[in-house]
Design goal:
homodimer; Aldehyde Dehydrogenase, Chain A, domain 2; Aldehyde Dehydrogenase, Chain A, domain 1; 19 helices
């Protein structure tokens, strides 16, 4: 048996480095994003592939308290048969099991919990190739992206959450001495003890597109702050979280703790167990990524809990001027194409003044810009093999339906085409569609078209673009924003507009950084200041609501 | 004009000391609690009294945007005529004025805002005698207590909130460099800027009993995190907050800022402007101290805001054993008597096993304990002058009605008596009532009897007492709990029970520290973990929800 304290000692140096990196917000990463042999070893790739293949067509080996029967709900966007089955959860049994685990988990203390969490993460990283296949065949991300976003980057985000939770729960001393001078007498002296107490049972509700990346911050933040966690994957992407929960329970049991500190809640689509668990009186924390509809429902109905949601939004690009037009086009084309725009961070609304933008090669009208962007997309996605590696596969019929609807609209400047995949002939792969609109077409562009659909919207001026940007994002939310301008005055105005809108801003991205990507330990993801998300991944606010510090005091 | 940066420079050392004290949680105080001449100077007391007298019978000199007409709503519990009138607020005009102040206040930045807030606090401290009279004649606190709790301690709590808000808003660097190595190329390098953005317009709703102490943490936390604040005093205790807002506006204007960053919302009782303002879409933060009824209403209805409430509770004492019986009685009698039990921290439910408690003088049955406690109250309050100094005055008819109801119940072990005051013959002063109940009388003791009413409740055993303690506090809340025991096993069980109940615990208080008092920078007040309060005063959670950090990034 390895105690939580032993695990903390083992991982202490890494945790201290992570806490320091989160504070400095410079570049740092704990988990290598390259799937190369030189990093992960000669055998890692084939072993991971074998491990993934061995899971297919079988019941997934995991214990779930109170489960009865099984469910098998996943379909690979790459067309292979998965047929993994999971124990079908009984929501009340899961809540009862989690509640029974509370006091033991509380007694472990912040450092021990951080030790356990980091050990879990190390073992997840050791299975990164297996995990990448699991993410690829549920989300539709291309393999390398699944390895990075679903593997290394998700693990970095998890470690970041552990670091914030550990720092927040140890910032107040566990023991303090208090001595108040008294006139003409001995001082009043007391010893004061602070104990971190979790808020209660936590629920994490996963999504199909980023089953690990979007679930890990809430999962690990809740764990380290002292809360047992029920993990409810999307029925379309169970495997990556089932592997995660399996590892959690393994580490907990080896440390002599109740494994029900983390449980898996798999369901048949339509069972609605997320709503049942989220509104249970003992459930006090809910983390959710997904549709605005269910996110808003959770915020309105899970009143006994703190609710962290990440929902839909209108990611916006304000186009004013550039001195690197080719770089702009290349960068933007890649942002629209990466994982077929199925990122919560993909730009949807591209705002361009009627008179066009200025570039180092002269002015470009909206019409010319549309043609140039279309050409850049064509160039990026011209080779089918490279295109498939960038686009990944379409995750579900909902995305496909929106793509079809948009592609049939007037004003298409870049049409969507099917792309064939050599390795997976059954894969559903499409290039993105871009449609020209006018600023008056707000009925169309003020709803989110999640997937490879973007709008090039003509406005009266950059000032008008900034006003639309602020108003639409304040009202409907956004996770990202990008401005292209060579004018310091416009950049200042864009920064002010982004502060008013409550969204993070990227400026003049023309190289290897893309607006849809954020780096753990440096970039915040989401703000809380607009309707797209209630908090950032990860800052103090994201962890502070998950625990309380309770004091006891007595005279020395 | 003194700029916010100048004010930050002026107060920087004090702020750094406060941040360090809040982190260490040892004894520290910035504002002396003694009203002696040696501390505040020869003339401070008479000058303060003159300043207070000069306010009476007149319109209070303060500008309120959009106000029309005046209100005059206060009555001194000491029977003197106040007749101060205030501009009657128009809630929509106040919200509009606050909203107009947002971007200017945001631009000041965390350090500048902390500088402004500390300057405000220094000027409040310079008027501490005037403030003490204002608190005395609205809350009914005796003068020395009004000077301490309404003056120095409230100012310490305010500085603590400023320190937490400053630390939280500067923990993430305002500027960071990020440089990610690239295989076979130059690193990707970016500059990242973090800007603190307040959540929106803040509302602070004050109470009659602690108009400053309970309002200052929310007021100063919201200010320093970048939010304009509307201060809505209880109609019975306007003056202390009117003075506070007057000083806020004076400092803001002198610094060249919009004084509407802080405004006063005075109303006629029954106008209900707190509800109107709290549910306005632009109001994003609400701080409230008062009844559970309105607190619960705010939590349910001010859905667009984060709501911090401090409401009613069942403060509990678990009596098991002691080796200082006289000290226990003296300490408890004082806790029940101080400010006539009109503190949210005064013990109400005293749980004693049927077989009695063991003391250094042998066992004491519940009956004997009741008699001994009554005698201790008699001794403490025997001298009318000293009694008046401890008891203060009864704040309103509601408290008086509860006192009369309790005093008419069977099982009274200490009856309430009127006490005459030399200086203020019109003062309403009463000694506390203690009533014996059985553990089965939970209909009576599970509601809060705010005021000088306590119950000595017979239980089957200490274990039973701890069970009642946990169950009643989990269900109905509490701000304080106290255990008396010489048994390490019982103390351990009491600590575990307090963690389960979600309440801070004091142990074996027999000297000069009382369960109803908490010290800024060391003791937390409220936990968030039981229904009596949604957060502690003051920790990171109390400030973290008041702001967001928004990033912008660009290549170097």
């Amino acid at each position: 048996m390895t105690s939580p304290a032993d695990l903390y000692a083992t991982h202490r140096e890494l945790l201290e480095r992570a806490v320091a990196a989160a504070a400095a917000r410079d570049y740092w990463s704990a988990f290598p994003e390259s799937p190369s042999k030189s990093v992960y070893g000669e055998d890692a790739a084939p072993a991971g592939e074998r491990a993934f293949a061995a899971l297919l067509g079988k019941p997934f080996p995991i214990e779930v308290p109170g489960a009865s029967g099984t469910v098998s709900t996943e379909h690979s966007p790459y067309g292979i048969e998965l047929a993994v089955s999971y124990p079908k959860a009984d929501p009340l049994a899961l809540v009862a099991a989690a509640r029974a685990a509370i006091s033991g988990w509380r007694a472990v203390g912040p450092e021990g919990r951080a030790g356990i969490a980091t050990e879990i993460l190390k073992r997840i990283n050791a299975r990164i190739f297996e995990m990448a296949h699991a993410v690829q065949h549920t989300s539709g991300q291309a393999f390398v992206m699944a390895f990075q976003a679903g593997g290394a980057h998700a693990q970095d985000r998890a470690l970041e959450a552990i670091a914030y939770a550990l720092a927040a729960t140890t910032r107040m001393p566990a023991q303090a001495s208090w001595s108040k001078p008294q006139r003409g007498g001995d001082p009043l002296s007391m010893t004061k003890t602070g104990t971190v107490v979790g808020r209660g049972v936590a629920l994490v509700i996963g999504c199909t597109t980023f089953p690990t990346w979007n679930s890990y911050p809430g999962l690990f933040a809740s764990l380290v702050t002292g809360n047992p966690v029920i993990v409810k994957p999307h029925p379309g992407a169970v495997l990556p979280l089932a592997i995660t929960v399996q590892i959690c329970r393994e580490v907990l049991a080896e440390a002599g703790l109740n494994p029900d500190v983390v449980t898996l809640a798999a369901e048949q689509p339509g069972d609605g167990i997320a709503a049942t668990i989220a509104t249970h009186p003992d459930v006090r924390i809910v983390d959710f990524t997904g549709s605005s509809e269910f996110g808003d429902w959770l915020e309105a109905n899970a009143r006994q809990a703190v609710v962290y949601t990440e929902k839909a939004g209108l990611n916006t690009v304000v186009l004013d001027s550039t001195d690197d037009y080719k770089g702009l086009l290349r960068n933007l084309a890649f942002s629209l194409s990466l994982y077929s725009g199925q990122m919560c961070t993909t730009p949807q609304n591209l705002l361009i003044p009627r008179d066009g933008i200025t570039t180092e090669d002269g002015a470009r009208t909206p019409e010319q810009f549309g043609a140039d962007l279309s050409a850049a997309l064509g160039k990026l996605l011209g080779d089918p093999k490279r295109a498939a590696g960038t686009l990944g596969a379409i995750v579900n019929d909902g995305v496909l339906a929106r793509l079809t609807e948009a592609a049939g609209a007037p004003g298409v400047v870049h049409g969507s085409e099917a792309v064939a995949d050599e390795q997976f002939p059954g894969a559903t792969i499409r290039t993105p569609v871009v449609v020209r609109l006018d600023s008056a077409d707000d009925k169309t562009y003020t709803r989110e078209w999640f997937g490879p659909v973007s709008f090039l919207i003509t406005t009266d001026s950059t000032e008008h673009s900034l006003r639309i940007f602020t108003e639409t994002v304040r009202a409907h939310g956004a996770l990202t924003a990008l401005v292209h301008s060579t004018s310091p005055a416009v950049l200042d105005a864009a920064r002010e507009a982004a502060l008013d809108a409550g969204v993070h801003l990227s400026e003049n991205l023309t190289g290897g950084v893309f607006v849809n990507q954020t780096a753990a330990f440096s970039d915040l993801h989401g703000t809380g200041a607009n309707p797209a998300a209630t908090a950032s991944l990860t800052d103090d606010y994201f962890v502070a609501g998950r625990f309380f510090t309770l004091q006891s005091r007595h005279h020395v």
